[in-house]
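Dear colleague,

Thank you for sharing your sequence with our group. We've completed the structure prediction you requested, and as agreed, I am returning the results in plain text so they can be pasted directly into your records. Please verify that the sequence below matches your submission; if there's any discrepancy, let me know and we will rerun it promptly.
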Amino acid sequence: MKKVELRTMEQIKYEIIKNLVDNDGNKHRAAIKLGITIRQVNRLIQIYKSYGKAGFVHGNRGRLPKKEISQDIKNKILELYKSKYFDANFKHFQELLEEYEHISISYTALYTLFRKVHILSPKVRKETIKQEKKIIKLAKKNKEKLSDGQKDLIVNNNILDKYDAHSRIPRLKYFGECLEMDACEDYWLGIDFGKITLHGAIDNATGTVCGLYFDKHETLNGYYHLFERIWRKYGVPAKFLTDNRTVFIYNGLKQKSMEKDTLTQFGYACHQLGVELVTTSIPEKKSRIERLWETLLSRLTVELRLAGINNIEDANEFLNTYTTKYNKRFALPVNYITSVFEMVDRNLINTTLSIISKRVFDKGCSIKYKNKTYLAYKGKQQINFCRNTRCLVIKTFDGRLLCNVDDELYQLVELEDKQKYSKNFDFEQQEKKKKYTGHIPPMTHPWKMASYQAYLLSNKRTEDYAYN
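Please find the predicted structure tokens below.
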């Protein structure tokens, strides 16, 4: 005789009806216990008398639903995914099945099928992977057999994608071969002073901090001062590796203000000095400068506080001695490593680290620059240019203003809105004429209009992502 096994609710229903029939109990009480009507109780009594315990087994038990997918089709779907469509996400795979294999299946059914065998989508979320890892860990603890999907997950979890992998690479051979450069904004002088930005550059080969400079924000001015410190102390490096800041990346030729197109400033300076400028959007590609910030945030803030420094000017002065102290503690000795820093004349710093802008002379023989009006002079003589004459305005590193017209350099003198002294009434006071005593570079310097425009045209898009 076949043994009849009832599920929990079926067993409860059977025992109540059996007790009711055997003991001639109260139908009303049984109806309340089962939550049904007396009419349904009478129907269950008839079933019990006719079929006994077997009559309480649900009629659909063991019967597949009408829309149930057969096991053969399930096996075929799994085999197709593993062998042919393994790199497709689940939604795409559903569409491909219908298009090429003529198998129609809902996304929910497909997802449930894959989850039962622990197959994860290529677009799986991290939270799902964490949950699956917990299941695998529990299965290993209970010494349960792992499915093929779980085994694949273990393997794939231990092998990183090539775009996510950041394996160790050897240091470069020469000192100055590549400087990693970046900036970090934090409360360097304390919370009361507010956030300021520290610009820094570190050598890849030796770990030597070649320069540090504080500024209010991450700006072209901050990077120019950093470059100036590197130039004066070590020379000009072979390459800079930086992030994709607008200080380094060319944004386009259609910008209204050329001085905002900062690649034509820092990038042009590097171009003229022969310094390769490489940018990357991956922090791990310039890991040494990223690790430097972690060290300085825990050390430099303390040093600045102990030194009683509470302003940017004193902090920048303090950095000159602190970099020497830091390099003595952490950097590799450079005495035994060949340096490839190029010793370029330091007198070119003011002219090379400059900001170049395009301007046009108006009918008053003057130009506008930063809401001020300027006239062109050659020595003590004012030069009057025709209207619509194009020129390059050059703001040198030390703050002087020059202009380039037809490959000739002229000094710019600000035109006051109102005269300070009257020639007719202020006889005792004489106006102090502005005299230009600075050095005007020779025209061998790469400030010629033609070379500058050629550089712009050749650098429509110059960011170089450091994947290699």
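Summary note from our side: The longest strand covers residues 179-186.

Kind regards,
the structure core
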